Amino acid sequence: MVSTFIRHELKAFWRSKNTGKSVAIRVVMALLILYLFLNVLFVGIFLDKLLGEIFANDDLVKSFCGILLIYFLFDLLMRLQLQELPTLRVQPYLHLPIKRNTLVRYLALTAVFSVFNLWPFVLFLPFIFKIIAPDSGFVTALAFIIAIAGLTVFNNYLALYIKRKSNLNGWVFLVSAVVLILITSCDFKWHLYSLHDISYAFFGRLVTFPVLAIVPLVLGIVMYYFNFLYLKQNMYLEELTAHKVKIYKSSTDIPVLARFGAVGDLAANEIKLILRNKRPRSALVMGLFFMFYGLIFYTNSHYGQNWYIFVGMFMTGIFIISYGQFMFSWQASHFDGILVSNISFSDFLKAKYLLFTMVSTVAFLLTTPYAYFGWKIVVVHFVMYLWNIGINTTMVLFFANRNFKRIDLSKGASFNWEGVGATQLLLSFPLILAPYLVYLPFMVFKHPDMGLIALGVIATLFILTRNYWIKQLEADYYSKRYQIAEGFRNK
């Protein structure tokens, strides 16, 4: 994948309208960098002479060890001002079957290819090979190289981390710069301590304990890991460029849903989708007509309590069945947008639960007048209402992860078989049969009321453990999201 990303970026560069201008700028910058490299290399070759003049009373190795920490402090300050953030337009890849870790790893590792990471080697390697290697041996020289490499990586990713955090909050950059300035000022201006001595206290020990070189290396790896985690958690452009609001403010114009935050917004958007499009609206209208379904069964004494279970489930959950069987096909036209946007899928699922719970609650309240035929009917309706929002909703969302057929919302509902497939056929059986698998054993042994209690208890358990089922559905979705998206793209 790394070669693919590089190839795509090269194509994007050469196909850009500003390619000529970009090439000219890069050529000029390359010449300038080459000139700076030659100057730094010149300083590196004669670094022993310079240190001998500046620190005439100190040993060369001690002087060298004393300036390393000071160099990396100024290096960090320069990086904060001049080092550019590596970029990759990740959104075009997020809806494709590419692991996010791969994208983040590429973005994090490309940061290593910065000219700032070459300066310390060009500057210090000549001294290490001229003075340290002949005097202290190859192992000590290698320890210094590893330590310098570790601090270079640490500075590289610390600077990038601070700059990325600064994109969200400008105070981060200001505080970081002030801290660095105070650290250096406390030495060079106020003489509260000596950075030279602190630097020598560590790097001087590399001569006798080369294994200490692993400390800067570990610091570099840890800083890379922090940078990796931050990139992974902020893969979206709006998070890296816009100031995040600490307190979420709902944007829905449905006051009842505003208290649910992002979940309420998603549920409100779904309600708007239903009301503005014919086919999903027909599922809602059909649910209203099913409110009269009970008149067929409750006015006829031939139908017993066995049928009450079926009728109660349909009247309080017809919307879940009719609308939910095409989940997530209703979002097929913008499903790729859902994949690449910063929407937590657990919130997406919670919005579905919220929507189904609200509609089923309204449906249950509309069926309470059937108490005219007996209060037991209302009890059955309530039990099946719990069953619908606890179990049937979970079943519908489970099968939604296996529905790859798109629906065009612009088309009408009459004689429209778009989106209908094997998933809908398979879904109907567990929705209808599941409550009877629990209820009929009690009916056979002449304890129908215990059967109702069992249905209510199981449904309540599912409602109480809803967060667990959401996590399971989310994990199942992540294993199938690219198949769903690919199916929805097929028109």
TrEMBL record:
Coiled coil region boundaries: none
Which sequence ranges are marked TM in the entry? 23-47, 59-82, 103-132, 138-158, 170-190, 202-226, 282-301, 307-330, 351-372, 378-400, 420-438, 450-469
Q: Which UniProt keywords apply?
A: Membrane, Transmembrane, Transmembrane helix
Instruction: Write down the superkingdom of origin.
Output: Bacteria
Q: Does the keyword Transmembrane helix apply?
A: yes
The family database entries (Pfam families) matched by this protein are listed as: DUF5687
**Name of the featured protein:** ABC-2 type transport system permease protein
Protein source organism: Mucilaginibacter lappiensis
